[in-house]
Structure formats: structure tokens, C-alpha cells
Design goal:
Layout (H helix, E strand, L loop, with lengths): L3 E5 L5 H15 L6 H6 L2 H13 L6 E7 L2 E10 L9 E9 L8 H15 L4 E7 L3 H9 L1 H11 L9 E6 L4 H5 L9 H5 L4 E8 L5 E8 L6 E3 L3 E2 L15 E2 L6 E8 L4 E6 L4 E5 L2
Parallel strand pairs: 4-5, 5-6
Antiparallel strand pairs: 1-2, 2-3, 3-4, 7-8, 7-14, 8-10, 9-13, 11-12, 12-13
Helix pairs in contact: 1-3, 5-6
């Protein structure tokens, strides 16, 4: 670890971060995520997303890069916790990726330590991170270091009142939006018929950062002004008929507010009214 340096990421790092992002996904998630999706990952698209993120970071977030011999070999992003069940005093390790050719040399530990330092400075009391249930190699890494990791966090993020504890979460439904694509079928009902009988499945993404949000069955022609809840695949919210129980539509990556829940009175259907220019779409099926 002695020859590994860590610093805040700069816009000029976008190309290498994007390369690591794609390569690591294709390496770590092979056999866990459909091969066609992994093959479709684009370094060029990721670079554009990272250029935007690094040029105008979300307040309260920070991305760090690890370098060795002048080359960026990994990155880590941290910020406020994005889980709805956690309070505002909880931080999160949003992501941590090491180039497959440079794993097991201490870059991950160095990035984790720097990210935790940042969370300490912002006076978070605890932090979480997510790991894919089926990603056994990464889970073993965390589980093997669970005690050491908690002790490290205790040392790094100690505050006047308490110290941070790291809640390592597993998520069997991680990337469920992308996985749901395999199971989507067109619904044939009165709503489809009244709109002419033609439908298509759209891949919906955040227009700001490009993050995948869900798949959506668009019935009939016309522009996409709203998304009916009974046509959405991939977003998780409690089944309800009460408008007030539906959360606002926000991007899980950049936190941009994309739409608001409404009742489409003509059909008495719950939907998200999309803000102009909030989402991008492409035909998936």
C-alpha cells in the first residue's frame, strides 16, 4: 500500500474512471448479470456521465481516486445514505471499484479509509454500503474484514458523541431494474385498447446523469408526460391506492427530482407526472 496515493477525483479522471467502472462490472458481475447487458456497457457513455458528475458534484458527495505509478487504478464515491429507512446522520459508501489488474494491492483499503475520513468530517454518525448477494468474492472480502473494518471505522470516524458503525448490507434485488427486463411482458387490457392497441417497452433513465431508472410500458402514440404505476417495472414502492404513500420520483444516483405522484382523474390511475426534460428513454421491446 506504500506506493498507492489517494486524492479527490478531477474531471480529467473521467476517462480512466469510466474504464475501471466498466471493466470491473464485466469482471466482477460475470455470471450474476446477463452477459448481453454487461457487453453493452459503454466506456464512452460512462465517461460522459462521469464528466458531468465530476464537473458539478452533488453537494455533500466526494469521489476519490487511487493512483499507482501515475496511473488511476481505482475510485470510491461517498455521500449521504440513499436508503429511505435511514436518517440524515447516516453516510454511505456509494461505490468502490478497483481495476481487475490491480486488485489485492491495498488500493481498496486506501480508498475506503479516505472515504471514511470524508464522512467523519461531515459528522455522520454511521454509514452503510451495499454488496450484491451473489457477489461471493466481494462478500467474503467484507466478511473476512468485518471486525477490522468496524474497528477501522471506529478509529477514523470517531466524533465527540459517538463513533460510526458500518452497516454492510446485501441486496438480492440489486440492479433489479436491469434484471426485470428479462421478465417484462406487454399488458393487454382496456388501457392499451383505448390508446389504439399498440404498446412498447421503454428503458427509462435520468436525463441528467444517465442512471437507469426502470422499464415502462408506453401505450399508444404521443410524448411521455406521465408514467402510470401499473406500467412501471423496476421501481420499488409499497403497493398502495393512497396518493400520499407514493414517494417522489428521484434519481438514485444524482438525487435529481424527476417527477411527482398524481392521480390521473380521467382513469382514476396513480401515476408519476414527469418534469420536462427529466428523463430520457429508448425503445427496449
Amino acid at each position: 500500500m506504500d506506493d498507492i496515493t489517494v486524492r479527490p477525483a478531477l474531471p480529467k479522471d473521467a476517462q480512466q474512471i469510466a474504464k475501471i467502472h466498466v471493466r470491473t462490472w464485466q469482471h466482477a458481475y460475470k455470471g450474476q448479470i446477463p452477459d448481453d447487458y454487461l457487453a453493452s456497457l459503454s466506456i464512452a457513455r460512462r465517461k460522459k456521465r462521469w464528466e458531468k458528475i465530476l464537473a458539478a458534484p452533488i453537494p455533500g458527495t466526494r469521489t476519490f481516486v487511487a493512483g499507482q505509478d501515475g496511473e488511476v487504478i481505482g475510485f470510491c464515491s461517498v455521500g449521504p445514505c440513499r436508503d429511505n429507512d435511514m436518517d440524515s446522520k447516516t453516510g454511505e459508501i456509494w461505490s468502490i471499484y478497483i481495476d481487475p489488474d490491480h486488485m489485492k494491492h491495498g488500493a481498496g483499503s486506501a480508498l475506503l479509509k479516505e472515504g471514511c475520513n470524508y464522512l467523519r468530517e461531515r459528522r455522520y454518525k454511521k454509514a452503510t454500503l451495499w454488496v450484491l448477494d451473489t457477489n461471493e468474492k466481494t462478500r467474503r472480502w467484507y466478511e473476512k474484514r468485518d471486525g477490522n473494518l468496524r474497528e477501522l471505522l471506529k478509529q477514523i470516524i470517531e466524533t465527540d458523541l459517538s463513533y460510526i458503525s458500518c452497516g454492510i448490507k446485501s441486496c438480492s434485488n440489486f440492479l433489479r431494474g436491469h434484471m426485470a427486463k428479462l421478465d417484462i411482458s406487454i399488458k393487454n387490457d382496456r388501457y392499451k385498447k383505448v390508446r389504439g392497441g399498440s404498446s412498447r417497452i421503454l428503458d427509462i433513465s435520468c436525463a441528467s446523469c444517465g442512471e437507469h431508472l426502470c422499464f415502462y410500458q408506453k401505450d399508444g402514440p404521443g410524448i411521455l408526460k406521465r408514467m402510470y404505476l401499473d406500467r412501471i417495472n423496476g421501481l420499488t414502492f409499497q403497493s398502495t391506492d393512497i396518493l400520499g404513500d407514493i414517494p417522489q420520483l428521484t434519481c438514485p444516483n444524482c438525487q435529481r427530482h424527476l417527477g411527482t405522484p398524481i392521480i390521473f382523474e380521467k382513469e382514476d390511475r396513480l401515476a408519476y407526472r414527469l418534469f420536462v426534460g427529466a428523463v430520457s428513454k429508448k425503445i427496449s421491446k
